[in-house]
Recover the amino acids of this structure.
């Protein structure tokens, strides 16, 4: 059953307008909020994000958005999609600007692409790049195999030992490009910036 | 809208753009859209952000915006109006602290350093700021080295001499990039056809090519250029051509972009 209303969490960091625009393009109502009560009761949540992990977590904790997210995903029938920094915030911790704890929704750490990993490749990883997903993925349903998605990040998560469906992108190292486990979804790339593939993926998220 | 030619050419206003351009459609042929406010007099961030929002509606591609950004609030306003990255130019020469602050606030991957370069009488490359009106003392090479060491995510290197001429990029510009630079580099200024884009993309030092020419003056120039590049073996990102139509029709048509 398709979601009729998406709640986008606004904590002051991120390309809110682009995400709103994409969801509206898919003919779904959008609510942008930072109010914990609205976040908690949402049918579907999107946590976007651009910028510093540390700063984002500070704001999210201060506004009690973290609690609202936990309450929301514990309910049946709700779901959440983390995009870019949003996905990283789902992680357990990040080494960006020192060390900070994440939401812990995805049991993976966030670290910078190391010199050994990147090799001669430039960091940040910017641009369209191929993603390889598992056949049973709900997010990538119906999307052509050699499609590219838009990435812009210096930090990454790895997919080792993760339960749930993981999708990989290779950039010196195979890093976590997308994740889905029950009602938790996340993409390191920006679906709202990935042309039609991205719109299809968002459409799939709405149908999950 | 003005062509970002340093000998400015007026192309049309927002209404003209709306009736002659379908940015949403054009966006499917490109990897990224760069929108710059090149107003010569006092720039107005509110007008620009409003324009940006309108222009980019229906474009689901990365958007970089800039022109006169000198503080966090202007940058934030653009980022909330559809921009994913901020393009900085004059401030790079004026105030390193602001650049640091912007990188700290938004992440350096959000910052594009736009460097306008011109050949001076001694055939040395010099850097220009304020829409090509102010010459920055010293060589462009030393400026680029300094800027590349600051917290920026990408370098957008533009040839003022070639800009708007359609005569091809000045690849000589690439010589002034620091050899140990690991920053993604976009070359701009002069592209007139897909061959120019191809030559640019084949250079090892180039990560992306930019053009305003094909966009402004030649029909489906960008779409054709992309097709030509791919046919000539240049590896470009691929996506499905899907018409996700709203609100009354629900048919989803999917076809390969190039066939």
């Amino acid at each position: 059953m398709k979601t009729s209303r998406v709640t986008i969490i606004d904590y002051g960091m991120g390309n809110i307008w682009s995400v709103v625009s994409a969801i509206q393009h898919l003919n779904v109502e959008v609510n942008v909020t930072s109010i914990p009560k609205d976040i908690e009761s949402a049918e579907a949540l999107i946590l976007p994000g651009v910028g510093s992990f540390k700063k984002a977590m500070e704001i999210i904790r201060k506004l009690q958005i973290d609690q609202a997210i936990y309450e929301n995903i514990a309910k049946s029938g709700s779901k959440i999609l983390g995009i870019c920094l949003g996905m990283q915030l789902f992680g357990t911790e990040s080494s960006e600007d020192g060390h900070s704890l994440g939401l812990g929704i995805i049991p993976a750490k966030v670290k910078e692409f190391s010199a050994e990993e990147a090799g001669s490749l430039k960091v940040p990883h910017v641009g369209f790049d191929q993603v390889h997903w598992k056949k049973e993925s709900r997010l990538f349903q119906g999307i052509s195999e050699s499609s590219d998605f838009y990435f812009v990040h210096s930090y990454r998560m790895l997919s080792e030992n993760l339960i749930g469906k993981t999708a990989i992108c290779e950039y010196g190292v195979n890093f976590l490009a997308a994740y889905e486990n029950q009602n938790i979804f996340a993409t390191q790339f920006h679906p709202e910036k990935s042309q039609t593939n991205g719109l299809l993926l968002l459409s799939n998220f709405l149908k999950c | 809208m003005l062509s970002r030619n340093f000998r400015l050419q007026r192309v049309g206003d927002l209404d003209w753009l709306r009736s002659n351009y379908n940015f949403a459609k054009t966006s499917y042929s490109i990897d990224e859209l760069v929108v710059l406010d090149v107003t010569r007099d006092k720039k107005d961030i509110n007008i620009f952000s409003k324009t940006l929002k309108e222009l980019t509606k229906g474009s689901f591609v990365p958007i970089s915006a800039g022109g006169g950004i000198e503080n966090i609030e202007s940058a934030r306003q653009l980022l909330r109006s559809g921009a994913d990255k901020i393009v900085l130019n004059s401030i790079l020469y004026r105030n390193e602290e602001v650049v640091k602050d912007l990188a700290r606030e938004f992440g350096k991957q959000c910052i594009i350093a736009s460097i306008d370069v011109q050949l001076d009488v001694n055939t040395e490359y010099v850097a220009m700021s304020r829409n090509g009106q102010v010459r920055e003392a010293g060589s462009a090479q030393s400026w680029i080295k300094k800027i590349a060491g600051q917290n920026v995510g990408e370098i957008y290197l533009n040839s003022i001499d070639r800009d708007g001429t359609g005569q091809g990029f000045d690849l000589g510009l690439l010589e002034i990039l620091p050899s140990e630079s690991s920053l993604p580099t976009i070359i701009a200024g002069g592209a007139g056809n897909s061959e120019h884009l191809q030559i640019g993309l084949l250079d090892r030092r180039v990560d992306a090519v930019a053009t305003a020419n094909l966009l402004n003056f030649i029909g489906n120039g960008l779409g054709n250029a992309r097709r030509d590049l791919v046919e000539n073996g240049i590896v470009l990102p691929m996506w499905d051509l899907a018409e996700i139509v709203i609100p009354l029709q629900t048919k989803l048509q999917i076809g390969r972009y190039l066939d």
